[in-house]
Amino acid sequence: MNHVPFRSLTTPAALADAGLLAADAVPGLAGVAERYAIGVTPALVALSGAHPAIARQFVPAAEELLVSPAERADPIGDHAHSPVKGIVHRYPDRLLLMPTLSCAVYCRFCFRRESVGDAGVLSPAEMTAALDYIRATESVWEVILTGGDPLTLSARRLSEILTVLDTIPHVKTVRIHTRVPVAAPERIDGGLIAALTAISKPVYVGIHCNHAAELTADVKAACGRMANAGIPLLAQSVLLKGVNDSVEALDNLFRALVETRVRPYYLHHLDLAPGTGHFRVAVEEGQRLVQALRGRLSGLALPTYILDIPGGAGKVPAGAAYMSPEGDGTFLVRDPQGSTHAYAPDIAKTS
Ligand code: SF4
Question: Ligand 1 pocket check: which of 76, 107, 115 to mutate, most ligand atoms within 8 Å of Cβ?
Fold first, then answer.
């Protein structure tokens, strides 16, 4: 159940009425609407009309029914690492807690598109079992609330979950992954901020943002309210064809995030979720873009280009290597412009 009245548009017909789809495209999208959740909040309807890069992320397309052999329903292997419902425990010291599978907006390239939707909230008994698992697993240092979108929960419900996590001694930090500050910035109000700051442990907020145009005045104000309350803000972005696959678009995005007090954290290579091929950028092109950015952006504005290995083996940096060993203790180092330099640290002589 979604606790917040986002007043989202949830059907192709409604999107056509809002001018975001041609009326004659609506019948051809029935299969997409049947298979995948649709939801576009008023803030993103307004932006989508003016920015094709925004509309492309949220307005359904017929290509979503084209599934390549490499694509899979569970691209990053969540199911293989789920000991109890609502938990994904892939790495020893951190895990995902998914209290809801509802989102404020449904991205057309979502890596969990086969599971997200309005019906997915943990029952009280399931939530108790998930929290019991965290309490009993002493290796867990960090809990990452994700889903779905945890900030679609009411402030009261969120506060209840955070309060329990605060009582578990081995959990030292909490992170929340969300699209809400972009999709429904009005939701970042005093009640929600009070819930995020009421516990003694640090709560980091990771904001999903893919284009500088998403950072409207309202979104910047919402981020400012969190930053002023002392909440550290990170950004996760996805490299998407037709949205941000140029040096200029990524440069604008990462600078705008830093100017909003949001630290770019990850630039994700798109996961192999079904029907997302029309968003996929080649790895070589992603590496070229990131290398070009390194030559022009402050380190503060440069996220790590990251690949989630299909099947659940974890995340690895996807950028091109800058250093290659020569075998005699020296390295060949490539600078952002592509020139190479010898680097000889001479470790043997100093030890
Ligand atoms: S907000 Fe996140 S979980 Fe929800 S549809 Fe978008 S990518 Fe998927």
Answer: 107
312 and 340 housed in the same domain? no
Residue 189 has pLDDT above 90, yes or no: yes
For residue 53, tell me if it sits in a domain: no
Q: 257 and 294 in one domain?
A: yes
> 282-306 b/e with 16+ CB inside 10 Å = b?
eeeebbebbbbbbeebeeebbbebb
Q: Which atom of ligand 1 is nearest to the CA of 148?
A: 3
CA–CA separation, 279 vs 46, rounded Å?
Answer: 22
Residue 321 scores a pLDDT above 90: no
Pick from 181, 209, 227, 320: which is nearest to 265 by CA? 209
Among candidate residues 245, 271, 280, 305, the one labeled active-site is 271
Give the pLDDT confidence score for residue 194 in this predicted structure: 98
Q: Which of 147, 134, 246, 151 is nearest to 196 (CA)?
A: 151
pTM of the shown model: 0.94
Q: In the chain, helix, strand, coil percent, each to 5?
A: 40, 20, 45
Active site residue 112: yes
Q: Is residue 61 part of a domain?
A: no
Quick check: 348 and 337 in contact, CB under 8 A? no
Give 271-310 pLDDT, tens digit per residue. Answer: 999 999 999 999 999 999 999 999 899 999 999 999 999 9
Could you give the CA distance from residue 62 to residue 150 in angstroms, rounded to a whole number?
29
- The structural domain count of the chain equals 2
Task: Give the 3-state DSSP-derived string for 256-274, with helices as H, strands as E and coil as C.
Answer: HHHHCCCEEEEEECCCCCC
Mean pLDDT over 169-195 rounds to 98
Crossing angle, helix 124-136 and helix 155-166, to 10 degrees? 30
Residues of the domain holding 350? 323-351
The arithmetic mean of pLDDT across residues 259-271, rounded, is 98
